[in-house]
Design goal:
- This protein is 71% helix and 1% strand.
- A two-stranded antiparallel ribbon has the order 1-2.
- The longest helix is centred in the first third of the chain and has 29 residues.
- The model has no long low-confidence stretch (mean pLDDT 81).
Length: 423
């Protein structure tokens, strides 16, 4: 058990690691739907509040809900396009009705999905975890350059800030001991932000403009409405998230040196279903296990659930106190990118470590790893190759974790035989 102050500090580090990924979804959806400033502020606050509740449910666990793994839940980026499409053709109330029912589907389908876990042997698990890490690296590099679509993308000052942040994290890991070493990412983010402020990049205007208190209320955008096509669309989104979350659970198990049982994954997915329903209730988003934080666990070697519990509590508070939440938004993208390099790289390295347990000299294992990683990384790096396909197929195939996982599972079935051992 960690002391309360240490758990809170480490929890805050996890919040910063996932904050950009969490906040970018409401920003994109709000901008696409032309929401006003008040509505945008509510959307971000509701998202953080629900992220916190969902994480607490996941970590604490009950008989049927929660994996009791150190996993943070955040809004899935897969849902952005479908939510915008549904809300644009009908309204937000229809989108939230679809989110609520798709969450119920996840709760009910979790036990059936759990029976598929036998198709995740070590060769598949290692490939999936590697794909998760590799598919996140382009996200890190876009942030290093200043954020995709930013006016200063690729400017030398952004590269310098990212390098400064990365070097600080590496130096702290090399020379510090104990608690200081475990908060190396937090220290790197702080130093990078201070350097950015001295360069005149950091602005505290969002903090001064944010309100002090916000109450998250059910059905802020109206009473839910239900449309069969919209519901089916969101169910597909959440099936994608279930596959992605399975990979995250297995990666967290690896990072925490524990074997993840089938029941833990089923309960974790049930918890995600409940979180998705909460997202619909509070007019936020569908939620999934965040892979961003796996690398942080690997890097800091802090494996206790107390830290993630603290992170969940912090997000609930940030959702209620927008001015505090706004403070975290002043960290420049380039600084976040510098930290992401080492975190996301750690996830990929963890996957490679799992694969090292398998005999890759055997053609079967080599083919499974090679093809699944290539397909998964290719789908993430060049998603536009699927632009000519129907929307539902595009939604599935543009997610590298899904395409890589399915490829690994199918090849494992296709190439296996009774005389062929795993290793």
């Amino acid at each position: 058990m960690l002391g309360k102050q240490r758990a809170i500090t480490l929890g805050f580090q996890h919040v910063l690691a996932m904050y950009a990924g969490a906040v970018v979804v409401p920003l994109i959806v709000g901008a696409a739907l032309h929401l006003n400033n008040t509505q945008m502020a509510y959307l971000i606050a509701a998202d953080l509040f629900t992220c916190g509740l969902a994480t607490l449910l996941q970590v604490l666990g009950t008989k049927y809900f929660g994996s009791r793994l150190p996993v943070i839940l955040g809004c899935t980026f897969t849902a952005v396009g479908p939510i915008i499409a549904i809300a644009s053709t009908s309204n937000l109330a229809t989108a939230y009705g679809a989110i609520i029912l798709s969450g119920l589907f996840v709760v009910l389908a979790a036990p059936l999905y759990g029976k598929l876990l036998k198709f995740f042997p070590v060769i598949v698990t290692g490939s999936v975890v590697t794909i998760i890490g590799l598919s996140l690296i382009p996200v890190a590099m876009n942030n290093v350059a200043g954020g995709q679509g930013s006016s200063d993308f690729g400017m030398p000052r952004n590269l310098l800030l990212a390098l400064c942040t990365l070097v600080v994290i590496l130096l702290v890991n090399r020379f510090a001991k104990g608690f200081l070493q475990s908060i190396s990412v937090l220290i790197g983010l702080a130093v990078g932000t201070i350097v950015a402020y001295s360069m005149g990049i950091v602005s505290f205007t969002p903090v001064s403009e944010a309100s002090w208190f916000n109450i998250v209320q059910p059905f802020y955008f109206g009473t839910p409405q239900f449309n069969l096509t919209a519901v089916f669309t969101m169910i597909i989104v959440n099936i994608v998230s279930m596959v992605e979350s399975t990979g995250v659970y297995l990666a967290v198990g690896r990072a925490t040196d524990q074997k993840v049982e089938q029941k833990q994954i089923i309960n974790g997915l049930r918890s995600e279903g409940a979180a998705i329903m909460l997202g619909g209730l509070f007019n936020a988003f569908p939620y999934t296990a965040f892979s961003q934080n796996v690398g942080l666990i690997t890097l800091t070697r802090v494996k206790t659930r107390d830290v993630i519990f603290a992170a969940g509590g912090i997000m609930v508070i940030l959702g209620l106190l927008p001015k505090l939440a706004a403070i975290t938004t002043v960290i420049p993208n380039a600084v976040l990118g510098g930290a992401m390099i080492v975190m996301f790289g750690s996830v990929a390295a963890s996957g490679i470590s799992i694969l090292s347990e398998v005999d890759l000299r055997k053609e079967r294992n080599l083919l499974i790893a090679a093809c699944s990683i290539a397909v998964g990384l290719g789908s993430s790096a060049v998603p536009q190759i699927f632009d000519q396909l129907p929307d539902f197929a595009k939604m599935l195939l543009q997610n590298g974790i899904v395409t890589g996982s399915v490829t690994a599972i199918l090849l494992n079935l296709l190439l296996s035989n009774k005389n062929n051992s795993e290793a």
